[in-house]
Design brief:
The protein has about 300 residues and is of the alpha/beta class. The protein has 2 domains: about 220 residues, P-loop containing nucleotide triphosphate hydrolases (Rossmann fold, 3-Layer(aba) Sandwich), CATH 3.40.50.300; about 60 residues, Alpha-Beta Plaits (2-Layer Sandwich). The chain has 12 helices and 14 strands. Strands 6-7-8-3-9-10 form a 6-stranded mixed beta sheet, sandwiched between helices. The chain has a 4-stranded antiparallel beta sheet with strand order 2-1-4-5, with helices on one face. It is globular, with a radius of gyration of 23 Å. The structure holds adenosine-5'-diphosphate (ADP) and magnesium ion. The site of adenosine-5'-diphosphate has 11 residues, from strand 2 and helix 1. Keywords: ATP-binding, Cell membrane, Membrane, Nucleotide-binding, Transport. One of its GO terms (molecular function) is ATP binding.
Length: about 300
């Protein structure tokens, strides 16, 4: 039985309060399963529908059609069972400012009917670098610290499935490392992890399988290693001090002075460098590297031009 199963999940939002405005189709027939023990990445640009899908999974919002199961429990009809199997770290920082960190975690334990949870709460505080903040009020904490508490809250009932929606957005490097060490440990010990992130290098390092969403549709679903192998395989990267001629620029990914060309082989690389020289430009700091997940992501997104974009 899958840990998470999405079957033909669609979601439309009305764009006006009175529900009379045009509809936004946030999710369009999304179907895939995540197996127990997987570290699964859900990627996509802003507005692709990631948070909508997670909200439906968490029972915070209702699918317009389709169904979602967590270890066999339907998130609508077996809400309490499904909820108990899930630990969800939401994208938005929501918390009650009146409680201390430890109180918040005890209350959350109580919500799941767990008494005497202090040993596990202490372990969570320790592993998330919150031990010295146990008695601090939530409102005294910085954004990064609040994020840690949200993670601890999600884990308080030892859920089998851990769901993290952009947990590292705007978070310092230290927390990222602490968080990933801990989540990777829980995954090794058997927890299933579903992660959305903008940091593609995080997804590449952590996730064994990845789904990419674009405008509410699954446009890629594969093992991370297969996604990486599917790409044009190499990237030529260098710096220049002047603009590239338009016909070359059209083939490149350009960030300020850094230019990157997808290259299949040595011949491609020679041709690009020759073209740059002929244009009277000097390429500096030349590097050739393997395509990474960001290259693959950009390729997949560029390939899947949707109808509305063609019309736009
Ligand atoms: N409560 C809502 N009401 C109306 N539109 C919404 C609402 N939540 C999300 N949307 C729209 O649904 C689409 C998907 O949003 P979201 O699920 O937040 O994407 P992501 O998390 O991938 O950035 C976007 O077009 C967004 O504007
Ligand atoms: Mg989101």
């Amino acid at each position: 039985m899958p840990a998470i199963s999405f079957k033909s999940v669609s979601k439309t939002y009305s764009t006006s309060k009175k529900q009379t405005g045009p509809l936004v189709r946030a999710l369009d027939e999304v179907s895939f399963d995540i197996q127990p023990g997987e570290f699964f990445g859900l990627l996509g640009p802003n507005g692709a529908g990631k948070t909508s899908l997670i909200s439906i999974l968490a029972g915070l919002s209702r699918a317009t059609s389709g169904s979602v199961h967590v270890h066999g429990s339907d998130v609508l009809t077996d809400f309490a069972d499904a909820r108990r199997k899930l630990g969800v770290v939401p994208q938005e920082l929501v918390f009650d400012p009146f409680f201390s960190v430890r109180e918040a975690l005890r209350i959350q334990s109580g919500y799941f009917g767990i008494k005497k949870n202090d040993a596990w709460i202490d372990e969570l505080l320790e592993n998330l670098g919150l031990a010295d903040k146990a008695n601090a009020n939530m409102r005294q904490l910085s954004g990064g610290m609040k994020r840690r508490v949200l993670v601890a809250q999600a884990l308080v009932h030892k859920p089998r499935v851990i769901v993290l929606d952009e947990p590292t957005a705007g978070v310092d490097v230290e927390l990222r490392q602490t968080l990933w060490q801990f989540i990777a440990r829980l995954n090794k010990e058997g927890s299933t992890v579903l992660l959305t992130t903008h940091y593609l290098e995080e997804a590449e390092a952590l996730c064994s399988r990845i789904a990419m969403l674009k405008q509410g549709r699954v446009v890629a679903l594969a093992l991370t290693s297969d996604l990486l192998a599917s790409s044009n395989s190499n990237v030529l990267r260098f710096k220049i001090d002047k603009d590239l001629p338009a016909e070359l620029a059209a083939k490149a990914r350009i960030t300020g002075r850094i230019v990157q060309f997808p290259a299949q082989n040595a011949n491609d690389i020679e041709q690009y460098l020759a073209a740059v020289r002929q244009a009277g430009l000097v390429a500096e700091d030349i590097e050739i590297r393997k395509a990474d997940l960001e290259d693959v992501f950009l390729e997949v997104m560029a390939k899947n031009v949707t109808h509305s974009e063609v019309l736009a």
